[in-house]
Specification:
The chain is of the alpha/beta class. The protein folds into 2 domains: about 5-185, Type I PLP-dependent aspartate aminotransferase-like (Major domain) (Aspartate Aminotransferase, domain 2), CATH 3.40.640.10; about 190-365, Alpha-Beta Complex (Aspartate Aminotransferase, domain 1), CATH 3.90.1150. The protein is built from 13 helices and 14 strands. The chain has helices at about 30-35, 50-60, 80-90, 100-105, 160-170, 175-185, 190-210, 245-255, 280-285, 290-320, 330-335, 345-355, 360-365, and strands at about 5-10, 35-40, 45, 50, 65-70, 95, 120-125, 135-140, 140-145, 150-155, 225, 235, 260, 275-280. The chain has a 6-stranded mixed beta sheet. Strands 11-12-14-13 form a 4-stranded antiparallel beta sheet, covered by helices on one side. Strand 1, helix 1 (about 30-35) and strand 2 form a beta-alpha-beta unit. Helix 2 packs parallel to helix 3 (about 80-90) and helix 10 runs antiparallel to helix 12. The chain starts with 5 loop residues before the first strand and ends with a helix.
Length: about 375
């Protein structure tokens, strides 16, 4: 792409990634949005699924050079064929970013973008379980037939992509990373890896079911964006509970649970968003199964209750002192400290440590 060429990617508050051209009304956040002209497509907020009809309408008007089919916090399958058809309609390149799901695609437990995309990119350290790095796949040969001349138009991706990687954006190769990536890719061909990814998927569905089902039906009654999951992650909208992802993330961190605050549709701030994103690959590697993730959901629920209680206390105290911004996140974080002064945090931290400590680390179980 040349500078100022047009690109469309999924909007960040709707599950897209910063690198897909995110910008606010007043600031270009991503370098992609500085170099190129970007227009986001979004979810249908009634369903939580990508609004492909609106994407097609916008693309027909905007005429982007690239449409990115990829997400950062989207728990449903992407309709790659539909995006391919839209790209063909407007003569755009389809770039599929499968960074978060590449391990599941490699194990064939999720459908991949390769039959449809012109370019596929992925990081290698997420569900692929490799070193921090990346892979770029691109097509060669005939791209399409010119509708006027009927002549074949060839792909010209290899040279520009190779030159962009080196010398355009990086220097010498990291040979140790390349070696580690080779090992990771070799592992994807094993039956153990396929079984692992199947368990990742089963665990995510059990996790989502416990979190999202109604309380009277065995669930915890949380609002899941899109209502569930088809992949390895769950995105919870905490706004109906009167709390945000940043505060719950901090409480979970203090009890030994890694989660990620995340924007959800309707959010205005990425620093204090209304959502919480959680995935199953790491603890599946430790040996967790469906019943364990039901228990993880219960831990998350207790953390939400703790965060809500503490937030009310902090806000009331700040209002009494006449603070101009009684709901400021820093007041909550400062009050928490390391959590040692809150008995519920101390108790939950101890329970999590005792429980998870019974599961071996990967290098222990491999011996």
């Amino acid at each position: 792409m040349d500078t100022h060429d047009r690109l469309m990617g999924l909007d960040l508050p709707h599950g897209g990634h910063l690198s897909h051209g995110y910008q606010t009304p007043t600031k270009k956040i991503s370098a992609v949005s500085k170099y190129f002209e970007t227009l986001p497509y979004q979810l249908d907020e009634r369903t939580g699924y990508i609004d492909y009809d609106n994407l097609e309408k916008m693309a027909t008007i905007y005429r982007p050079k690239i449409i990115v089919a990829g997400t950062s916090a989207y728990s449903r399958l992407i309709d790659y064929k539909r995006i391919r058809d839209i790209c063909d309609k407007v003569n755009a390149y389809m770039v599929a970013d499968m960074a978060h799901i590449s391990g599941l695609v490699a194990a064939k437990v999720l459908p991949g973008p390769f039959p449809f995309a012109d370019i596929v990119t992925t990081t290698s350290h997420k569900s692929l379980r490799g070193p921090r790095g990346a892979l770029i796949f691109f097509r060669k040969g005939v791209r399409r037939q010119n509708p006027k001349t009927k002549e074949d138009e060839m792909y010209n991706l290899e040279g520009p992509i190779n030159n962009s990687v080196f010398p355009g954006h990086q220097g010498g190769p990291h040979n140790h990373t390349i070696a580690a990536l080779a090992v990771a890719l070799k592992q994807t061909q094993t039956t153990e890896f396929h079984a692992y990814q199947s368990q990742v998927l089963a665990n995510a569905k059990a996790f989502a079911k416990r979190l999202g089902e109604e309380k009277g039906k065995g669930g915890l009654g949380y609002n899941l964006v899109s209502g569930g999951t088809d992949n390895h992650l769950v995105l919870v909208d905490l706004k109906p509970h009167g709390i945000d992802g940043s505060r719950v993330e901090r409480v979970l961190e203090l009890v030994g649970v890694a989660a990620n605050k995340n924007t959800v549709p309707g959010d205005r701030s990425a620093l204090v968003p209304g959502g919480l994103r959680m995935g199953t690959p790491a603890m599946t590697t430790r040996g967790f199964h469906e019943d364990d993730f039901v228990r993880v959901a219960d831990v998350v629920d207790r953390a939400v209750t703790i965060a809500t209680r503490i937030n009310k206390t902090v806000r009331a105290s700040a209002e009494e002192r006449g603070e101009k911004l009684p709901g400021k996140l820093k007041l909550f974080v400062d009050h928490l400290g390391n959590g040692d002064r809150d008995p519920e945090i101390v108790q939950l931290r101890s329970e999590v440590a005792d429980w998870v400590g019974t599961y071996p680390l990967p290098w222990d179980s491999a011996e």
